[in-house]
C-alpha cells in the first residue's frame, strides 16, 4: 500500500535552524547571491538574523527590531545601506567575484 504525502500538511521549511556556523552562513549567502535577487537576499539575511537573534542584530545594526523585520521580509527591496548595516551586524561581508574566470 502506497502512503500519500499531502504537501499542505508538511511543516514550513525554516533555514534559520540550519545556520549554526560561520561556514553554513557563508555557504547559504553565497548560494543566495548567485540568484541575483534582492528580495531573496533580504529574506536570507532575515533567516540569518533570526538564527542569531533578531533583537541583537537590530541593535548592532542601529535600527529598530520592527524595521529590521520589515526590511528583511521575503517581498521587500531594502536599501543597500540597510543590507550593509545588517551584514556588518551579522559579521559577514559581501564579496564580488568575476563571472567568467
Keywords:
single chain, 53% helix, 101 residues, mainly alpha, 5 helices
Beta-strand percentage?
A: under 5%
Largest sheet: none
Give the C-alpha Rg. Answer: 16 Å
Shape: globular
- Structural class call reads mainly alpha
> What integer is the average pLDDT?
90
The SSE string, one letter per element, is HHHHH
Which regions have little confidence, pLDDT < 50, spanning 5+ residues? none
Share of helix, binned:
40-55%
Task: Quickly count the helices.
Answer: 5
Number of domains: 1
Separation, N- and C-terminal Cα atoms: 52 Å
Strand tally is: 0
Protein name: Putative addiction module antidote protein
InterPro entries: Cro/C1-type_HTH (IPR001387), HI1420 (IPR014057), Lambda_DNA-bd_dom_sf (IPR010982)
Organism: Solimicrobium silvestre
GO molecular function, one term: DNA binding
Question: Secondary-structure map with pairings?
Answer:
Blueprint: H1 22-34, H2 38-52, H3 54-61, H4 65-71, H5 80-90
Helix pairs in contact: 1-2, 2-5, 3-4, 3-5
GO molecular function: DNA binding
Protein name: Putative addiction module antidote protein
Organism: Solimicrobium silvestre
Structure explained in plain terms:
- This protein is mostly helical and 101 residues long.
- The protein has one domain.
- The chain has 5 helices and no strands.
- It has helices at 22-34, 38-52, 54-61, 65-71, 80-90.
- The chain is globular.
- The model has no long low-confidence stretch (mean pLDDT 90).
Offer a concise description of the structure.
The protein has 101 residues and is mainly alpha-helical. It has helices at 22-34, 38-52, 54-61, 65-71, 80-90. This is Putative addiction module antidote protein.
Amino acid at each position: 500500500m502506497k502512503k500519500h504525502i499531502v504537501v499542505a500538511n508538511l511543516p514550513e521549511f525554516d533555514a534559520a535552524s540550519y545556520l549554526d556556523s560561520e561556514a553554513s552562513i557563508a555557504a547559504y549567502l553565497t548560494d543566495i547571491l548567485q540568484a541575483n535577487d534582492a528580495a531573496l537576499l533580504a529574506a536570507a539575511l532575515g533567516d540569518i538574523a533570526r538564527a542569531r537573534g533578531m533583537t541583537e542584530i537590530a541593535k548592532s545594526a542601529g535600527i529598530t527590531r520592527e524595521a529590521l523585520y520589515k526590511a528583511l521580509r521575503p517581498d521587500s527591496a531594502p536599501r543597500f545601506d540597510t543590507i550593509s548595516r545588517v551584514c556588518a551586524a551579522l559579521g559577514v561581508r559581501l564579496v564580488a567575484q568575476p563571472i567568467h574566470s
